[in-house]
Structure formats: structure tokens, C-alpha cells
Write a structure and sequence with these properties.
Radius of gyration: 22 Å
Helix content: 10-25%
Number of domains: 3
Structural class: alpha+beta
Order of helices and strands: EHEEHEHHEHEEEHEEEEEEEEEHEEEEEE
CATH architecture of the largest domain: 3-Layer(aba) Sandwich
Mean pLDDT: 88
Strand order of the largest sheet: 5-4-1-6-7-8
Largest sheet: 6 strands, mixed
Length: 337
């Protein structure tokens, strides 16, 4: 794509592989970032690819030698504070696309361009380790969503107390230096670093393992929630169901006959990538599928229609509109049992 001089990679977001069951260990691999970089260069061959990671995420990498090599090569930067501030600041400066699954709710007012077409790209690492990149329009964020995200970020950046989702350990060598040596402590920020509030030694974040989650589709018809559909590992076909199409999840209940017939019998298929995240393919010549479209004055989807037979990665917060949008499928995550 012409005119792109830089591409920004959200390295922590890319490196972390989601857990899909409680027995699965959390994995952080920089090799994933390398694969996304290579895929980015196929789309923007003349662009400089810059990856940004925060220090706590870098400490969790199982292949740290790869990130060290990326530092030496000059394309990886470690943020001293919040990585998103550096990532989005550089993206704004270079008018660069950002590759991430993040919704960046807290940054929407400071960086309104995040909602512009082509500025945020989603990625999907397939089971053969190939990478799929697609532009992803972020849906507008409400003031409530922005305020909640900013509150969460402010708590992380300032005084963090044990029990608020993060645990920091004092790195002092002995109890003679600090009574909290090696134990959870309160912290404050000094020059962008978390320090023990009682002795001013650096504090180390205790690794938090997020809960295992599974992707779920929330089906709504005419604005009313009809079903919550967990996505199986072997994928799912959705469309106009009938007794002789038992393999198809019906999404047309509640529609009149005319509206039902605008939905294909096998309208779309959703498969899982290597992370267990959904990838959607529109596979019907009847009707359309839109991903996070803008709404026209008549309420109909204006743009962002999926191309027939082409896969598109989905992230939490995305919404698929089928045909005129009376049928919608919202992507969310629920904790695995």
C-alpha cells in the first residue's frame, strides 16, 4: 500500500497467546511478533516496522533471545511506562497503521484517528503458523467505556495496592533493607518505573495469568438478544436453518419470510485459528455480511462488506451485520468452565 512509511506492532498483544482451558499454561512468544512483522512487510514492503513492548511483558517471553536480537536490529522498543502511549504516539507521528487486537478504549479521545478506516489492523496466526492481516475499523467508544478504561489505566500507572488486579514484589535483598523484601508491596512511579513505596527499590510485577476464555457470539434479531453461541473448536456454519440442515446454526428465528430469504442457507462460516480465536468467511451468494460497518441515515450498513470466500479475523468487540443488519452477531469472550 503506497504512502505508508511506518507500521507499528503492539508486541505484547501479539506475543501473548490466549488460554482456552484452565490447564493450559500462559504463553508469551516473540516468534509470533516476528511472524506478524514478516506478514506486514508483504503488505507494506517499503515501510519501517516498529514493535513496542512494555518491560513486564518482555520479562515473560519464553524466547527472550529473539527480542534481544530485535533490539539489536533496531526494530523493537521497550516502553519505560505504558507501552500504548509510545505505540500510539509514534503511530500518530508517522500516520502509521497499528497491528493489534486491542480496542484502545482509554485512548479514543486523545487519538480519534483510531476509528478511521485502515488505521488499526487485526491479525490472526493460523494453525500452519501463517499470518492473516486485515484492516479492522474500531467501533465508536462511549464516554462510559472511555472513562472506565482510563480509570483502569490510571490505577495501573499510579499507586497500586495488593488486591486490585496487580501484585508488585519488592526486590530489596533482605528484610534489613525493607520489611517487604521479596513480598507484595505498595508501589509508586519514579521516572516511569514502579518502585517500592517503603524503600524505593525497584518493584517487580508478579505475573498475572488471565483466566482461560472461550469466544462466544451474541445473536440479536431486531435489537433483541436471541442466543449466546459458544464457538466450537472445529468451527461453525451459520445461516438459514432447516431440519435437513442440522449442521447449520439458525440465525433467522423471528424474521419474516422475506427477510429470512435474504440470509443464505450457509451464510457464513466461522473457524478457529491457532489461538482459538474466530475467523469468519462469507460463503453465500445470497445476501451480504458486514464487519463493524458505519450506519446510514436509514439505519442500513454503509460499508465494510466482507468479500466472498475471504477470511477475516474477529476480535472481542466486533459485530457482524447480516444483510440489512436486522441480524447481528457480536463477538465476546466468556470465562472457560
Amino acid at each position: 500500500m503506497a504512502g505508508v512509511i511506518a507500521v507499528m506492532l503492539d508486541a505484547a498483544n501479539i506475543a501473548c497467546k490466549k488460554r482456552r482451558n484452565r490447564d493450559q499454561p500462559q504463553q508469551w512468544q516473540f516468534a509470533r511478533v516476528e511472524r506478524v512483522k514478516a506478514a506486514s512487510l508483504k503488505i507494506w514492503p517499503d515501510a519501517q516496522v516498529i514493535a513496542v513492548i512494555d518491560a513486564s511483558a518482555e520479562d515473560r517471553l519464553s524466547d527472550r533471545r529473539r527480542s534481544d536480537a530485535a533490539h539489536a536490529a533496531g526494530w523493537l522498543r521497550t516502553a519505560s511506562g505504558d507501552a500504548d502511549d509510545l505505540l500510539l504516539g509514534e503511530a500518530a507521528k508517522f500516520t502509521a497503521p497499528v497491528v493489534s487486537r486491542d480496542n484502545f478504549y482509554d485512548a479514543r479521545r486523545d487519538h480519534p484517528w483510531l476509528e478511521d478506516e485502515g488505521r488499526v489492523w487485526d491479525f490472526s496466526i493460523q494453525k500452519d503458523h501463517s499470518v492473516l492481516l486485515r484492516p479492522r475499523r474500531l467501533q465508536p467508544a462511549s464516554d462510559e467505556e472511555v472513562a472506565a478504561a482510563r480509570k483502569k489505566k490510571a490505577r495501573k500507572a499510579g499507586l497500586v495496592t495488593v488486591g486490585e488486579g496487580e501484585v508488585w514484589l519488592c526486590t530489596a535483598e533482605s528484610k534489613q533493607t525493607c520489611i517487604y523484601a521479596g513480598e507484595p508491596t505498595k508501589v509508586h512511579q519514579v521516572a516511569g518505573r514502579a518502585m517500592c513505596r517503603f524503600c524505593d527499590h525497584p518493584a517487580r510485577e508478579q505475573v498475572y495469568t488471565p483466566p482461560a476464555t472461550v469466544p462466544v457470539l451474541i445473536l440479536s434479531v431486531d435489537g433483541r438478544e436471541r442466543a449466546r453461541i459458544p464457538l466450537p473448536a472445529d468451527g461453525l456454519v451459520l445461516g438459514r436453518g432447516s431440519p435437513d440442515r442440522s449442521e447449520v446454526a439458525d440465525v433467522t428465528e423471528g424474521l419474516d419470510d422475506v427477510a429470512r430469504k435474504r440470509i443464505g442457507r450457509r451464510h457464513l462460516r466461522i473457524d478457529m485459528d491457532d489461538d482459538g480465536l474466530p475467523v469468519v468467511t462469507h460463503q453465500s451468494e445470497r445476501g451480504y455480511t458486514f464487519l463493524n460497518p458505519r450506519r446510514g441515515a436509514d439505519g442500513l450498513p454503509l460499508d465494510n462488506g466482507l468479500l466472498f470466500g475471504e477470511p477475516y479475523p474477529l476480535a472481542e468487540g466486533d459485530t457482524l451485520w447480516l444483510d440489512d443488519g436486522r441480524v447481528k452477531l457480536a463477538v465476546t469472550e466468556e470465562e472457560a468452565e
